[in-house]
Amino acid sequence: MTQTPPGDHFAIEIESANVVLREAWPTSCIAYFELASSSSGVALLLTVAALILPPLLLWAIRRYRKMQDENRIPFPFLELPQELRDMVYENLIEEPAYPPPSTSPAHTSSMNWMLPLRWPSPSPTSQQPKRSNWILLANKQINREFMDLLCKRTRFHLTVSPQNYQNPCASPTSTAPSNQSIWKIGADTLKQIRSCDLKLVTTSAMLGVTDPRNMSSSDWTLARQIRQELTALTNVSSLTLDAKALGDPLWNPLWIWYHACQSFKNMGTAQSDTDPVGPQLKRITFSLDSWSPGENYMARDASNKGAWTWYCVKGHNVGVDGVGDVTVREFCGKLYQDCRICRPEMDSDDEEN
C-alpha cells in the first residue's frame, strides 16, 4: 500500500475544507469575504485621503488669499494729474434731480381716454435706473473734486410738487414752511450750481386759498419760500421756470400760471421782495398735465436790455410783457396771442379791416 507524503495530506485537508465551506455557506457570503480581503487596502487609502485632503486644501486657500492681500497695491488715483481725474469724473456725471424721480407709474390725465392705444404716449418715457456714484464715498478730496465738476458741467433739476410739498394749511400739526427745506441740498452745493431748471407742479390746493381771484401773487406762501431758498444760488448763470398746472374741474389753470408768473418774474431785480434779491430767471414756460393748444412763453430779450418778452411755441417774438404786475386779462392775452409770422393771414385781415 502506497503512503501519501505529509505535505500532500495538508493540501488535501485545505481543499476538503474549502469544499465543505462552499457547500455549507451561501455563495454571497463567500464573495463578500473575498472582496473585503482584496479592497481593504484601497479603503484604507481612501479613508486617509478623506482625512488629510480637506485641511490641506483649506490651508492652501488661506495661504493664497494671504499672498494676494500682501501683494495688493492700491491704484494711486489721487497722484494722477487733475485733467485725468476730471476725465474719470466725467464718465460718472449724471444730471441731478431733487427730489429723485419716482419709480411709480406716471400721472395719468383725464384726457388720456381720447388717445388711441396706437398713438404715442404724451408723457415722457421713464429713464432707466442709473448707477450709483460710490466714488463720492472714497474720501473728502474725491467728493469735493467730483461735486465741483458736477455743479459746473451739469444742469440741476429742482421740482416742487405735491410729493415733496404739503400745504401747511392742510394739516394743523404740520411744520411752518419757513422751518422746512423743500430740497435736501447742502448750502455749499447750492453755491456752486451754474445751471438750474425749476419745475413747479402745482395743484389748486397748493395756492393756499379758496378763491384765486381774491389772492395777491406776492402773498403766495409757497412762492415766497421758493424765492427765499433760491437766493442761495449765488453763482447760477442760467435759471428757468416751468409752471405746470395739474387738472382741477373747479379751477382754471390760468390762475396757477398767472400767479406763478407774477411771483417769480421780478426775482433777482430791484422789484424783488427777498433779501438778497436772488438770481434772475431767464425763461418761464407754462404747461398742463393734459392736452393744450400750445401756450406762448416768456424769456428775457438780450437785445432789449433783458426785458421780459413773449414768444410763440416756434420762438417768434409776439410782444413785450407789461411793466410790473399785469392783470389777469393782460396775461391771458399775451399767453394766447397769435404769432404774425406763423399766421401771416392775420396781416391781410388787418388791412381789410
Question: What attributes characterize this protein structure?
Answer:
single chain, 353 residues, alpha/beta, 37% helix
Number of helices: 9
Give the CA-CA distance, first to last residue: 163 Å
What structural class results from the helix and strand content?
A: alpha/beta
Bin the strand percentage.
5-15%
Flag low-confidence runs: 9-14, 17-21, 113-126, 170-177
Kindly report the average pLDDT value.
79
Biggest sheet: strand arrangement = 1-2-3-4-5-6-7-8
Shape: elongated
Characterization of the model:
The structure is a single chain. By secondary structure, the chain is an alpha/beta fold. Among the domains are: 54 residues, no CATH class; 179 residues, no CATH class. Helix content is 37%, strand content 12%. Strands 1-2-3-4-5-6-7-8 form an 8-stranded mixed sheet. The longest helix is centred in the first third of the chain and has 45 residues. About 9% of the residues have low confidence.
